[in-house]
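Q: Here's a chain of 210 amino acids. Please give me its 3D structure as tokens.
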Amino acid sequence: MRTDTSEITTVQELEALVGAPGERARTKERSRLTDIDRAWLAASPFCVLSTSDASGRCDASPKGDPVGSLVHVLDDTTIALAERPGNRRVDGYRNVLQNPFVGLVFVIPGRGDTLRINGRARLLSDAPFFDAMAVRGKRPILALLVEVETVFFHCAKAFRRSQLWEPETWDPERVPSRAAIAHELEPVAGQGLAELEDYYRPENYDRGLY
């Protein structure tokens, strides 16, 4: 480890370096959803769910559904996200059972700003609103119910810096395919690369989405 690093260890040192937030950034947090927040949630097909366990170890998990299906808004302070078939690790949900505090960032493709919601979560195995969360006729496996504590919009600078929505910057073949990654880093006895490539072929992989 290098010995010429300069570590920040206090809030005072941090604020001295980055400065104080402006009035808009300082006062933009809300405790209830507005009509604009609801419209954003209805238009967002993707979010990242952040959790931590009782000891503070963190997890960030992507969640996605068709536009209009990702979030079910129960009221101005309560939302629910559906869980669909996946790899069954459920790391974030294991964390919620230990520590209910969650953070969510909701993304709309093409937009640089994001909606952030922080709150307390619970896991539900069934509820009357599960029927309203069905996609392709399939009800959720479970739902994450979030009691909203803070909600606010985040600026677009990270997306602008990364050029995330600019197709001319995209290069998905720069790294190995998902099948090649699984073959090298997540080997399963008797499963070859050709079999994995067939599994991850979009027309095959998509059959297990719901």
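Q: Can you summarize the key feature?
A: The chain has a mean pLDDT of 96.
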